[in-house]
């Protein structure tokens, strides 16, 4: 972004971060006999203002609210990972499992609120906008740290999209397997290839990816968030029903250790801690969500409310799913209680839950990938500002529906979705790779950068009690990241040998 000199900076409009446009008024008052040149000058100003990348907030009448921001957050945190929390609880037991849910919810809420104050600088209410996470890091920390931030953030987001395609196709196959079991019994060899369904998912995502930005994504995000509530509630309901019926399995305060070696126990606890920590994280899209909010009331205050709503909702659902699922399955808790290794009946309810998962992941894919789409398109517009291929919005109309198509957006986003779909088919073990990517990205994106930016903003002196407290939090989360990464590497080494590219059947 082009830097402004001191005099220009003092003239910035706090609502738009643009310099006041005075050329047209000056032209009207001084150019009485040069109407044609004034008209051309006015057009030039209009073209600059309407440029799709000129203003981070081009349509202030359609800015989003705390509820749409909360929906985006819920989409990010209440994903299918919530259905694996009963397994994590079974590995750690009631004591450590419940403690981890509360600890990581608190850490995420605290650091997300620190990050909310970094959206504008130097003042969190009236300062200049930092419209991406990278830009916020560059503004506050300087140097090349924003490059590292970008590699972590966008590498993780790209990896998550591959995992979403794999998981969505697995839910489709689960529905097919449940129908097969219903007709032929649970001993029938019901296996199906995921590839045709991954291709179908890719086609749907290509269409949905033409939604230009977070501002236009609110309806899809709200629908997807409601689907997350749906399948999470079904998981809780089935688990509680099992418990109420008296089919309670043996549980433990410290986890089940029967029939397992010390090494297996250690590996599984590391993976379980990592699962809970990663399931709680959404800071990689937090700045982009905040950039979709209205300017009044101040974005940082609205974002903090959205953080509270999202994290509170997340914690309730995490506790319900983890505790009820563990009580229902005990030490034999599967990795996902709604997939074929979990509940088997009632068929119709399990199929409904998997339909909810499919719809949720189709929408969550778009929420997760928007920051990656956006940064590429912004960089392209800055590099080639006069290219109509990159900047021109072509108006289209189907019946009463009006929309615009951008050729660069169409080509770039379609190419991205095709690539990640092919990678999903080639590497069905990629969910284990995502665990590694998420573990490596958790500490820098969730804790390190928000804490370091906060220290710079508040001018906290090194060696003070406050500084030591923040660094202790950062060190703790670094150790969690390393532990989760070690567990993910162990799981990945076991998974690679089980699968063949493009040949996976669930």
Automatic annotation (TrEMBL):
A family per Pfam: Aa_trans
Xref: InterPro entries:
AA_transpt_TM
Q: Which residues form the Amino acid transporter transmembrane domain?
A: 63-492
Keyword field: Amino-acid transport, Auxin signaling pathway, Cell membrane, Membrane, Symport, Transmembrane, Transmembrane helix, Transport
User: Which parts of the sequence are annotated with region: Disordered?
Assistant: 1-26
Subcellular location(s): the record lists: Cell membrane; Endomembrane system
Q: For this protein, what is any one GO molecular function term?
A: L-amino acid transmembrane transporter activity
Which topology term describes how it sits in the membrane? Multi-pass membrane protein
UniProt GO BP: amino acid transmembrane transport; auxin-activated signaling pathway
- Composition-biased stretches, type Polar residues, lie in 1-20
Residues crossing the lipid bilayer are: 66-88, 94-116, 219-245, 308-328, 348-369, 410-430, 436-456, 468-492
Q: Which GO terms describe its cellular component?
A: endomembrane system; membrane; plasma membrane
Family annotation (PANTHER family): OS05G0424000 PROTEIN-RELATED (PTHR48017)
Q: What is the role of the protein in this entry? A: Carrier protein involved in proton-driven auxin influx. Mediates the formation of auxin gradient from developing leaves (site of auxin biosynthesis) to tips by contributing to the loading of auxin in vascular tissues and facilitating acropetal (base to tip) auxin transport within inner tissues of the root apex, and basipetal (tip to base) auxin transport within outer tissues of the root apex. May be involved in lateral roots and nodules formation.
Tell me its family.
Belongs to the amino acid/polyamine transporter 2 family. Amino acid/auxin permease (AAAP) (TC 2.A.18.1) subfamily.
Question: What is this protein called in UniProt?
Answer: Transmembrane amino acid transporter family protein
In which organism is this protein found? Medicago truncatula
């Amino acid at each position: 972004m082009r830097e402004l000199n001191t005099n220009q900076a003092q003239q910035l409009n706090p609502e738009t971060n643009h310099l006041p446009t005075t050329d047209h008024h000056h032209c009207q008052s001084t150019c009485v006999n040069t109407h044609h040149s004034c008209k051309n000058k006015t057009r030039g100003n209009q073209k600059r203002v309407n440029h799709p990348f000129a203003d981070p907030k081009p349509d202030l009448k359609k800015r989003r609210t705390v509820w749409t921001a909360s929906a985006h957050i819920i989409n990010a945190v209440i994903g299918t990972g919530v259905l694996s929390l009963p397994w994590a609880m079974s590995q750690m037991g009631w004591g450590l499992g419940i403690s981890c849910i509360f600890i990581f919810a608190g850490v995420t809420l605290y650091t997300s609120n620190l990050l909310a104050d970094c959206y504008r600088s130097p003042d969190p209410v009236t300062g200049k906008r930092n419209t991406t996470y990278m830009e916020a890091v560059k503004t506050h920390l300087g140097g090349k740290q924003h490059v590292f931030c970008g590699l972590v953030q966008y590498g993780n987001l790209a990896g998550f999209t591959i995992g979403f395609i794999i998981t969505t196709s697995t839910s489709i196959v689960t529905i097919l397997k449940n129908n097969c079991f219903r007709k032929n019994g649970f001993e029938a060899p019901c296996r199906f290839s995921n590839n045709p369904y991954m291709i179908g998912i890719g086609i749907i995502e290509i269409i949905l990816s033409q939604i230009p930005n977070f501002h236009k994504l609110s309806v899809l995000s709200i629908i997807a968030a409601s689907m997350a509530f749906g399948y999470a509630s079904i998981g809780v309901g089935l688990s509680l029903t099992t418990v109420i019926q008296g089919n309670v399995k043996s549980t433990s305060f410290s986890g089940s250790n029967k029939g397992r070696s010390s090494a297996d126990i250690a590996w599984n606890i590391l993976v379980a801690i990592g699962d809970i920590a990663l399931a709680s994280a959404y800071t990689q899209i937090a700045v982009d969500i905040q950039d979709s909010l209205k300017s009044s009331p101040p974005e940082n205050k609205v974002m903090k409310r959205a953080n509270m709503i999202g994290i509170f909702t997340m914690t309730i659902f995490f506790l319900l799913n983890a505790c009820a699922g563990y009580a229902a399955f005990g030490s034999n808790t599967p990795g996902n209680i709604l997939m074929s290794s979990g509940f088997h009946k009632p068929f119709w309810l399990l199929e409904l839950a998997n339909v909810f998962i499919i719809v949720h992941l189709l929408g969550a894919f778009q929420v997760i990938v928007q920051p990656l789409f956006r940064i590429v398109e912004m960089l392209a517009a800055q590099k080639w500002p006069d290219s109509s291929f990159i900047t021109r919005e072509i108006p289209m109309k189907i019946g009463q529906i009006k929309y615009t198509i951008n050729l660069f957006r169409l080509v770039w986003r379609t190419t991205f979705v095709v690539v990640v779909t092919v990678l999903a088919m080639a590497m069905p073990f990629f969910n284990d790779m995502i665990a590694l990517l998420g573990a490596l990205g958790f500490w820098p994106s969730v804790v390190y950068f928000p804490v370091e930016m906060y220290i710079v903003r508040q001018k906290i002196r090194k060696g003070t009690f406050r500084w030591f407290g923040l660094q202790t939090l950062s060190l703790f989360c670094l150790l969690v990241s390393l532990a989760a990464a070690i567990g993910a590497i162990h799981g990945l080494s076991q998974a690679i040998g089980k699968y063949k590219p493009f040949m996976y059947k669930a």
